[in-house]
Design brief:
By secondary structure, the chain is α+β, with helices and mostly antiparallel strands. It has a domain of 57 residues. It is 38% helix and 26% strand. Strands 1-2-3-4-5 form a five-stranded antiparallel beta sheet. A hairpin with a 3-residue loop joins strand 3 and strand 4. Helix 1 packs antiparallel against helix 2. The longest helix has 30 residues.
Length: 197
C-alpha cells in the first residue's frame, strides 16, 4: 500500500505586501497525557501544601514549606505552559518588505513577539537536526519540550535566530522556497570580512 502524501501543517496567507505563515505546535500525545496526569497530581500537592502552610504555627516548617511551595509552583506553571503550548500553541511569521516578525502564542494570545530588520537577516536556511531524545542532550530545556528551537534559522548580526518548531525538514525547505520565491528574502551577495589575525 502506498503511503499518502503529507500536505504539511503550515498555513500561508498573503495580504497586500505582507506574507503570514502560521505554524501550529506539534501534538505529542505522550507528553499531553503525561502532563495531564502530572498537573492533576501537582494541583493536589499545591492545595495540600497551601493548606499546611496556612494551618501551621511552626516557623521552621513554614519556612521550608514556603521554599518548597515556591519551587513546586514554578514547576507546575512550566508544566501547564508546555501542556497549553502542545495543545494550542502557534508560531506566526509575518514578513513584509522591511520586517521579519516571529510571534509565539496560544490560540490568539501572543506571549512573545520578536521583530527583525529584514535587511539584516542573513543565511536563511535549515537548522541542522538535533537529538531530542534526551533532556540532558539539549542546549536549551525548551528545545526538548518543543517551546524553543526549530527547523529554520537565520543570522541576525552575531546571533542565530531559530524558529519553525515542530515542522519536518521537507516543510521547512518548502517555507524557505515560498519566502524567497515570493520576493520576501534575497540572500545578500556581500560576505562579511573575516579577521584572520
Amino acid at each position: 500500500m502506498i503511503e499518502q502524501l503529507h500536505t504539511g501543517r503550515t498555513k500561508i496567507d498573503f495580504e497586500g505586501t505582507k506574507m503570514t505563515i502560521q505554524i501550529p505546535s506539534k501534538k505529542n500525545w505522550f507528553i499531553i497525557l503525561f502532563l495531564c496526569v502530572w498537573v492533576t497530581g501537582w494541583f493536589i500537592g499545591e492545595k495540600s501544601a497551601i493548606t499546611s502552610l496556612i494551618n501551621s504555627d511552626n516557623i521552621g516548617i513554614d519556612t521550608f514549606m514556603l521554599v518548597w511551595l515556591t519551587g513546586w509552583t514554578i514547576g507546575g506553571a512550566f508544566a501547564i505552559l508546555v501542556l497549553l503550548w502542545t495543545l494550542a500553541g502557534r508560531e506566526t511569521l509575518s514578513i513584509d518588505k522591511r520586517i521579519f516578525q516571529i510571534d509565539k502564542g496560544i490560540k490568539n494570545f501572543v506571549f512573545r513577539t520578536r521583530k527583525y530588520d529584514l535587511k539584516a537577516v542573513k543565511n536563511l536556511e535549515l537548522n541542522p537536526a538535533q537529538n531530542k531524545t534526551s533532556l540532558f542532550a539539549q542546549n536549551n530545556v525548551g528545545d526538548f519540550w518543543g517551546l524553543t528551537g526549530g527547523k529554520l534559522r537565520f543570522d541576525y548580526g552575531m546571533k542565530t535566530i531559530k524558529f519553525g518548531i515542530g515542522i519536518d525538514e521537507a516543510e521547512a525547505r518548502y517555507l524557505i522556497h515560498e519566502i524567497t520565491n515570493n520576493g520576501y528574502y534575497k540572500e545578500s551577495e556581500e560576505t562579511p570580512a573575516h579577521n584572520n589575525s
